[in-house]
Design brief:
Strand order of the largest sheet: 1-4
Distance between the termini: 87 Å
Structural class: mainly alpha
Shape: elongated
Strand content: under 5%
Radius of gyration: 32 Å
Number of helices: 17
Number of strands: 6
Largest sheet: 2 strands, antiparallel
Helix content: 55-70%
Length: 466
């Protein structure tokens, strides 16, 4: 065996040992600390790459043109062919080796004029440059999208928590309609909090991803559970509005129990089913399930069904509104404006804006700029939905504003104008007990009327100033 063959054989054996026994790759030290499932998956992909390298390059005949070459080798990630001395060679980036690698880009390796591969001065090891495998433009775009989500969810969280405080603080707002709003807002709050925690803590902790512990996977399932709860409470909003507008004498107590089961109970079945099928697949049970995976359909099917149901509810609600508005003998354009207004108000409540973003366009066909614009629009509408519903159904709600203004005026009159308040109470006392009893009867009557006419309240909310 000649000297060149011996040198090549030693490279071949080194690559074989590094692949099968040590599993030590250039820049892949974190993989050694991974859990056994991740390590096995990594080793399997690496062994497959080595086998392909053997068949396509390592076992092929050597050049016999008399020129000086750097020997073919497999460095653990890429397969490098014989390279003419004093030149640079390129290969496609191995996407399997690192989640951040883009297979459309290329890595390179320099062959010195003396026929030896270039050695990195710091490590003193033969070095292949894979830093070019990271698509920095795409990475910057993804970071921008993540920042939009982070800012949007944070803004929504502030307004949602303020809305929840208002709903619980004012007793006048205790009714079935507001109770459903409360649960929807709570699902938004929990979802926003867990998303912020997940996307700021877990991706920045490589050890957590590589260990793939049961806690982070349970947290992932909990996130999916809250996401489905969020959609199902949107469905409850649509079902309730449709029920009280179409069937005026529905029993709200019974409806609430049904809504609790739909909103918080059914998502448990969906999320647990998703967790079981993913945990049983060794190819998907990796890295804290940070990647989308192939089993999202388990979650997507019930969510899509709930959105389509809400779309049907919306169409029928608008039809009922138009029918009732026409009965008032007002102008046709006035009917149209109110119907359009009711539709726009109900869209964020029912989550129907997600129908505008059913499928993400493919970058190969639509182009990177179109995909980036889609991602931005999706991030804005998704992260700010909590803001939209809190503004429309709390801060811009006529009933809430009236109660808030009345309480503010009472507070000012009690704390800043004690003399006037005392005169007012003295005047009230002169009116006698009969007037007090009359006021009590009127108050009870209004309360009874409110409970019995909840459908009318919802109609007013939708058509006037929800």
């Amino acid at each position: 065996m000649d000297e060149e063959s011996i040198t090549t054989e030693s490279h071949y054996n080194f690559a074989d040992n590094a692949t099968i026994e040590k599993i030590e790759l250039q820049g892949a030290g974190a993989a050694v600390e991974a859990d056994p499932a991740s390590l096995l998956d990594y080793a399997t992909k690496q062994f497959q790459a080595l086998s392909e390298c053997k068949d396509n390059i390592l076992d092929m005949p050597y050049p016999d043109d008399g020129q000086l070459y750097c020997n073919r080798t497999f460095d653990g990630w890429g397969c490098w062919n014989d390279t003419l001395a004093g030149t640079r060679t390129y290969i496609a980036c191995p996407a399997w080796a690192n989640d951040g690698f883009d297979s459309r880009l290329t890595a390179f390796k320099d062959c010195n004029p003396d026929g030896n591969w270039w050695v990195h001065p710091e490590s003193n090891y033969i070095w292949s440059n894979y830093t070019t495998c990271i698509n920095h433009e795409e990475l910057a775009r993804q970071q921008t999208i993540n920042q939009i989500y982070l800012v949007g969810y944070s803004i929504s969280l502030v307004f949602l928590m303020a809305s929840i405080f208002i709903f619980f603080y004012f007793r006048q707002l205790r009714c079935t309609r507001i109770t459903i709003h409360k649960h929807l807002f709570i699902s938004f709050i929990i979802h926003n909090i867990v998303w912020i925690i997940h996307d700021t803590v877990i991706p920045s902790s490589p050890n957590t991803l590589n260990e793939n512990g049961w806690a982070c996977r349970l947290f992932h399932i909990f996130i999916r559970y809250i996401l489905v709860c969020n959609y199902f409470w949107m469905f409850n909003e649509g079902l309730y509005l449709h029920t009280v507008l179409v069937f005026s004498f529905a029993k709200t107590e019974v409806l609430l129990k049904v809504f609790y089961v739909i909103g918080w109970g059914l998502p448990i079945i969906v999320a647990v089913s998703y967790g079981i099928v993913r945990a049983l697949d060794p190819n998907e049970n990796l890295k804290c399930w940070i990647n989308a995976g192939r089993y999202l359909m388990v979650l997507a099917v019930p969510v899509v069904i709930s959105l389509l149901a809400n779309l049907i509810f919306l169409c029928n609600i608008v039809r009922v509104l138009i029918t009732k508005m026409r009965a008032t003998n007002t102008r046709e354009d006035h009917h149209t404006r109110k119907a359009v207004r009711a539709t726009l108000i109900l869209v964020p409540l029912l989550g129907l804006q997600y129908i505008l973003f059913p499928f993400r366009p493919e970058e190969a066909t639509a182009g990177a700029n179109v995909v980036f614009a889609y991602d931005i629009a999706s991030a804005v509408f998704t992260s700010l939905q909590g803001l939209f519903v809190s503004l429309i159904f709390c801060f811009f709600n006529g009933e809430v504003r009236e109660i808030f203004d009345r309480n503010v005026k009472q507070y000012i009159s009690m704390h800043e104008m004690p003399v006037i308040s005392g005169m007012y109470r003295q005047r009230q006392s002169r009116s006698g007990p009969s007037r007090s009893r009359s006021a009590s009867v009127m108050k009870n009557g209004r309360a009874a009327h409110r409970e019995s006419d909840d459908a009318h309240t919802d109609m007013t909310d939708i058509t006037d100033s929800v």
